[in-house]
Amino acid sequence: MEFIIERQVELPHVCVEVATVQWFDVTETPVYTCYKLSQRLSEDHPPLRVGKLSTPHTFPRTRSVVFLPPGYSARLFPIEKPLRLLHCDFDRNFFEDITQRNLESWQKHLAALLAMRNQRMEFLMQKLYAELDQPGFGQHMVIEAVCKLMLVELARHAQQLDIAAAKDQVSSALAPWQLSRIQERVAVSLELGYPNLEELAKLCGISQGHLSRSFKQATGRHIHKFIAEERIQAAMRLLGEDHLSCKDVAERLGFKSSAYFSTAFQRLTGKTPSEFKQQAVNQDLEVRMELEHRFM
User: For 43-57, 70-84, 215-229, which range has the lowest pLDDT when averaged over its residues?
Assistant: First the structure.
């Protein structure tokens, strides 16, 4: 990678620089240990294609801003011509003290911060670039003041992301009637067959993706696992009946084969259906013998 620093100012808690970079092969960046804000300065340049992050492209336009917290690296794909950037590397303790937010609170908004749309942040970074490009009296004081304003603006931006995420969470939650419909439908599966995700989504009037997310949010369980566990609970009850074989139980529960039923049952219970049925028979025999002894 070719990395040419044009201008740089190092302060106790932040380093700001204008740099031109270019690389010709797929390149892995080091894992960053600081909080990094960068702005694209190049006028005529396509978006930067990246890997290992939650977005396939960054820097879609001139003056667009990208934020990356510590602990991440990126895979950079080749670019056709040099890319000019403004970088701000913040000391972790200083950054978190000013923004009053820890690393985890920034990580949860990573996708949005990699494609940030914030005009005030873009304006402040342009002010910072102007100070680097044409330094004047009190340059260090101006840079420090602008950097603090940037962190305040970034913290406000994160607050808005928190509010938006909270609204999405509320709007995506299952209503009580929807949860009841799912439970009632699964409860009659021995008569109607076990439902798939498409059927349950139609019952609730929502998409399959929405159902998966909202069911997990409401119950703490994945809906596929909920159905599988209910199915095995029904199998345990049926295996306790003397007149039903393991094959009969598998057929009643809609398993494709006895072998598939045995695998699914053992995965959740730690026993094969045959072992469980024998245990149930032995326990039932012990109970009957105890009752007979008690009433003799």
Answer: 43-57
**One domain for residues 260 and 160:** no
Number of domains in the chain: 3
Phi, psi angles (nearest 5°) of residue 37: -115, 130
CA 61 to chain centre: 26
Q: Which residues pair with 90 in a beta bridge?
A: 14, 35
CATH number at residue 266: 1.10.10
Q: Do 190 and 210 belong together in one domain?
A: yes
Tokens of 170: 């509320």
pLDDT in tens, 149-191: 999 999 999 999 888 877 766 556 788 888 889 999 998 988 8
Contacts of 247 (CB under 8 A, 6+ apart): 258
User: Domain limits at 162?
Assistant: 2-170
CA end-to-end distance (rounded Å), the chain: 91
Other Cβ atoms within 10 Å of 10 Cβ, number: 11
CA–centroid distance for 109 within its chain: 9
φ/ψ (deg, to 5) at 33: -105, -5
Please count the residues of the chain. 296
Nearest CA-CA partner of 99 in 12, 143, 30, 37: 37
Q: Give how far Cα 145 sits from Cα of 150, 152, 231, 280, Å.
A: 9, 11, 63, 75
One domain for residues 15 and 147: yes
